[in-house]
Structures
1.
Amino acid sequence: VQLQASGGGLVQAGGSLRLSCAFSGSIFSIVTMAWHRQAPGNQRELVGIITSVGSTNYADSVKGRFTISREIAKRTLYLQMNSLKPEDTGVYYCNARRGDGLMFWGQGTQVTVSS
């Protein structure tokens, strides 16, 4: 599975961005897809996750502000980010996990939120 993230940029606090992650290859055995982020000096953390049946879950810090979704026909995973805060700044990565636990990662896309 290959993943290609895009959509990052510079935005003012309170603004919105939508990240996209185009995926290709065999996705038959993919059980979850997710967005993670990593701020400078911090560990990579899970932001939101969506299962093969469409169930979603989010980090407490983004609940009510971020929405993860996917369009299988377009082979694209999304992360809609609203009411952005400076602490949302970081490199955002999309990820897919197979049923056997193997993980696939896209390259990151930088999100910078100015105060």
2.
Amino acid sequence: QVQLVESGGGLVQPGGSLRLSCVGSGISFSSYRLGWYRQVTGKQREFVADIHSGGYTRYADSVEGRFSISRDNDKNAAYLELNSLKPEDTAVYYCTAIRLSQFWGQGTQVTVSS
């Protein structure tokens, strides 16, 4: 059974930082493209960032320069460093692993508010 478990979300003030983690079981992350998406209630889930098995990274324009994605295949984990957070970054953040199939975590809430 494949499981992806996110953690690290919370309430942070504008300009603050968070580090999200995603730990997988049931699959080996090393051969998967790993990504982060986010969703606001009533809106579509949107792409945030991903990292390919070889280390190539992509970011949404809205987070470029503020967020950083990384992976640790030995720990079967992916991370998303969120810096210079803005209120519009408030969302549930989901981890995903993609190869022939796509797997999702349950999400972790990030709230940016003063």
3.
Amino acid sequence: QVQLVESGGGLVQAGGSLTLSCAASGSVFSIGAMGWYRQAPGKQRELVATITSGGRTNYADSVKGRFTISRVNTKIIMYLQMNTLKAEDTAVYYCNARLNSHDYWGQGTQVTVSS
């Protein structure tokens, strides 16, 4: 079992920056890949970025060059640095962790970008 808690969301003006954090607890030593997903009102949840336990990253085309995903394995904390935010980045952002082929999710944190 893994528990994930996100923090760092909020309201920011377009062009601004936010950093999201995800803290994992429980069976953290067996966690594999982690990632950030987001869901805007009326839309399906979509991938934002993922990172493997070895540090390999993958980004959605819409955030490449603006967002940076990272993780601290010793503490099992994951970050999402978001720069040059746009109104279309407004969504609930969810932390994801994979353990033994099972996906765990956080409760989500709201990011609102005003234009």
4.
Amino acid sequence: QVHLVESGGGLVQPGGSLRLSCAASGSFSINIMGWYRQAPGMQREFVAQIITHGNSKYADSVKDRFTISRDYAKNAVHLQMNSLKPEDTAVYYCAATGPGAPYYWGQGTQVTVSS
């Protein structure tokens, strides 16, 4: 089992920045951590993921604005979001998985981009 707790969401003006964090706990070998988001009335969509000591991948809509990073010592993942747009408004979910395991999800954190 893995327990994921997100933090760092909030209200920001267009063009602003936010940094989301997700701390993982539990006896489980994680090799992929990532972020998804879900806007009202929309399906959950992929945002970014990072493979342990490997590559990262981004949705086209956030490429060059968002950066995902891992803190291996703290078993955490971060999402630095710059140049935020109103269309980035959503609940952001942390996800983690490992060999032979399902995706585990956090409870979500709200990000609102509005003037």
